[in-house]
Automatic annotation (TrEMBL):
Gene3D superfamilies: 3.30.1120.10, Alkaline Phosphatase, subunit A (3.40.720.10)
UniProt keyword Cell inner membrane, yes or no: no
Protein name (record): Arylsulfatase
Gene Ontology molecular function terms on file: arylsulfatase activity; metal ion binding
Organism: Chitinophaga barathri
Domain Sulfatase N-terminal: 29-350
One Pfam family named in its UniProt record: Sulfatase_C
Family: Belongs to the sulfatase family.
Length: 485
């Protein structure tokens, strides 16, 4: 007890917030990561979304910290998930794009995931939901640190079914007609085939049930739960319980069902006396797929969406809750990213960092509310086949010339069907995100020294991670896993 009091006084004397104090004999904290698919920055009500309601996300924000400058590792599915789980920019470990069911590469078995690091510390590790880092053994979750898994191996639109839910005819001129049936995997084996939109309507509840069961089964030991919902990625579908519940169409109904799922997880933690000792992290893999119109979400006014290096593609909602450690009802405007989750969790749980180099930085000082904390000085936006498309430092973001998709030239689709998303030439541009988060005003003429500074910083990344736009091969890129069959 005396040692604990002295530690408390030392923290106070050094200016560290006293709620960051953890008694030396306290049980290891549990970790729950809730990862959404294609949920936009402006979708949760506490980030300006609506007219549907998200009371559980609102409550999570009221009891924790809301991030206003939080970035997915990349603006597309597989790359983003690789960044979250390994703490690396995805191009460092050879992961790009959204892996198809027949892809010949996957997350390398030499990369260490959050699950592997925590399992080494005696944690139970479980996953429910979308994986998308390799669709067959030895590249499924059980080979990447998870004790249990239930979910889809890739995106829910990678199936031989049209946008209206009708299977493609053999004569259809669409590449997706050649995809295999969509499998629901339990462990390493196919549990059932998802054939219809009605089948998909049960996914949210199925994942939630597995997640809550995992919590109850492991309540007496430390655990790591990764709940990666397949939606609101299209096609979207909701259970009968939530159909028509929002008065805001199918997307609104889905948002309310996803919010209810989060509520069930939080309720299960509370009922089992685990809330105070559990770090809950909620975020999304990238921005909304805007060309799907009323089946897509909102960027909250940010530019463009999924698949772009503009803010709407990569800035995502994020909330973290840990009672007694993260001050309740707080907001941080400091830059952070999904690649920072692994080193932060490792620090909190007393785990070692991966043996290979990572890019993430612990943001525990932000979570503790330390005065002046700013662990992430800058962030780089890679996309496609290792293209360095932008870099941010402080409030300034420099966008490099590249070809990128746009949602601005065509009307979006409707009721599940997409509109066009053509590629256009994106010119060099400098944006002050503090006053122009929509990236509408190019200020490079006013701030030539900032352009020079950010360009030089970008060159350091080109040397180590490469850049296809300038034909530079990196010196630190690692090979992904190779799928042999």
């Amino acid at each position: 007890m005396i040692r604990q009091i002295l530690a408390f006084c030392l923290l106070a004397a050094t200016g560290v917030a006293v709620y960051s104090f953890i008694p030396s004999k306290a049980p290891k904290p549990n970790v729950v990561i809730i990862f959404m698919d294609d949920m936009g920055y402006g979708d949760p009500a506490c980030f300006g979304g609506g007219p549907y309601q998200t009371p559980n996300l609102d409550r999570l924000a009221a009891n924790g910290m809301r991030f206003t400058n939080f970035y997915a590792a990349q603006a597309v599915c597989s790359a983003s998930r690789a960044g979250l789980l390994t703490g690396c920019y995805p191009n460092r470990i050879g992961i790009r794009g959204a892996l198809s069911p027949t892809e010949k590469f996957a997350l390398g078995n030499g990369e260490e995931t959050i699950a592997e690091l925590l399992r080494d510390q005696g944690y139970a590790t479980g996953m429910a939901g979308k994986w998308h880092l390799g669709s067959k053994p030895p590249f499924l979750p059980l080979q990447n640190g998870f004790d249990s898994y239930l979910g889809l191996p890739y995106s829910n639109d990678m199936w031989p079914v049209n946008y209206d839910g009708v299977p493609y005819a053999d004569t259809a001129k669409n590449g997706r007609k050649n995809y295999p049936p969509l499998p629901l995997i339990d462990g390493n084996e196919t549990r059932k085939i998802i054939r219809t939109l009605e089948d998909q309507s049960g996914l949210t509840a199925l994942y939630t049930e597995r997640a809550c069961s995992f919590i109850r089964e492991n309540k007496k030991k430390p655990f790591f739960l990764y709940l990666a919902h397949s939606m609101p990625h299209v096609p979207i579908a909701v259970s009968k319980k939530f159909q028509g519940s929002s008065g805001a169409g199918l997307f609104g109904d889905l948002m309310q069902e996803l919010d209810a799922s989060i509520g069930e997880v939080l309720k299960t933690l509370e009922e089992n006396g685990l809330s105070k000792n559990t770090l809950v992290i909620f975020t999304s893999d990238n921005g909304p797929w805007l060309n799907y119109g009323n089946h897509a979400g909102s960027t909250g006014g940010l530019r463009e969406g999924k698949g772009t290096s503009f803010e709407g593609g990569q800035r995502v909602p994020c909330i973290m809750q840990w009672p007694g450690h993260i001050p309740a009802g707080t907001v941080t405007n400091k830059v952070a990213s999904t690649i920072d989750v692994l080193p932060t969790v490792a620090t909190v749980c007393g785990a070692n960092l991966p043996k290979n180099k990572i890019d993430g930085i612990s943001i525990l000082s932000l979570l503790n509310g330390e005065k002046g904390a700013n662990p992430r000085d800058h962030f780089v936006y890679y996309y496609g086949n290792n293209q360095l498309e932008a870099i941010r430092k402080g409030n300034f973001k420099l966008v490099f010339p590249h070809k990128g998709r746009t949602y601005k030239l065509n009307l979006p689709g409707y009721d599940g069907f997409p509109g066009a998303q053509p590629n256009v030439d994106v010119p060099l541009g400098l944006y002050d995100l503090s006053m122009d988060p929509g990236e509408t005003l190019d200020v490079q003429a006013q701030f030539p020294e900032v352009v020079k500074d950010l360009s030089a910083l970008a060159d350091t990344y080109r040397k180590t991670l490469g850049d296809a736009l300038t034909n530079v091969k990196g010196t630190e890129n690692r090979e992904p896993g190779k799928v042999l069959n």
